[in-house]
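Lecture notes, unit on binding sites. The following record was shown on slide 14. It pairs a sequence with pyridoxal-5'-phosphate.
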Amino acid sequence: MGGDELNYIHEAFDTNWIAPLGPHVNNFEKEMAAYVGTQHAAALSSGTAAIHLALILSNVKAGDEVICQSLTFSASANPIAYQQATPVFIDSEEETWNMDPALLETAIKDRLSSGKKPKAVIVVHLYGQPAKMEEITSICRQYEIPLIEDAAEALGSSYKNKRAGSFGRFGILSFNGNKIITTSGGGMLVSDNEELISKARFLATQARDDAPHYQHSHIGYNYRMSNVLAGIGLGQLKVLEQRIKQKRNIFNFYSSTLSHIAGISFQPELAETKSNRWLTALTIDPAFCKINRETLRLAFEKENIEARPLWKPMHLQPVFKSAPAYVNGTSEKLFQNGLCLPSDTNMTADDRSRIRTVLNTLF
Ligand SMILES: *Cc1c(COP(=O)(O)O)cnc(C)c1O
């Protein structure tokens, strides 16, 4: 927390706005839309809820297909299953670790030739690094498929000076406890389309028709962010730029400590993009290094320091084993050789020196 969050919470209590609506929600939406660079935003209970509503508003129904980046957290893909639609997974390229535009086009052509037009494309900016948005937006435009940008990990990142979340028909953000800023739990759907965002608010508040009695013409959801949590979000927005600086500083700490070691590479930052470096992630190529990813992870674990492998690709997950996938081996190799390093902005100088000791001993 930055310090100002409690003032906003007190204000919510003092004015008795302890409800899933209220002035903090409106202001958090306005400030976040302005920050990301979209016209509109709907504050929700989670990033997952935002993806779910984006799919509903893209008219995704049972039996439809939705294209999704394979190397990601399961929350990117689960809402496709909520709609009883089928995810079609796309592998990554090596320059950003995100959706490979060439494979995306191959997949779209292939699905079209089998008579099925994908209803949406979900691209992810993994660990804060923007995907190749110029290529991906142009393919989606060419084939007229709406783009949903999962920017849950990439708040504050940019591609050619345009912020992550502002490229697609929808952008989704997460304020879960592990993200760069947090409301303890929460998310947001952002878009330039006012009608879609007002429909999202309607669906997120139980789809109540405009009538004095309770009247429903649609299935609704209880997906709205509460006014108390939006207050935390307003306080957190004030420290976002500072958090990004801290995260990038943590990345510099690791890269200056390890970059000279043969076989070690960090997640690349594409030219003209800026990652918020939410998590610092590296790969160890066993062909060039005596130590592999597991040796490093276990050396950390022995010192009670948590490090985790990269996301396991969705096309390798038991739950999605029957889903179609277009693969090139990149995400599988990243999963085998990759490790996310401790990246908390709360890390003390002492924590860093414990980490450095493990690294110096190993390498
Ligand atoms: C965290 C995360 C989500 C889900 O956000 P929640 O707010 O936790 O529901 C979705 N996609 C990615 C890539 C994430 O990291």
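Take-home: The first strand starts at residue 40 and ends at 44.
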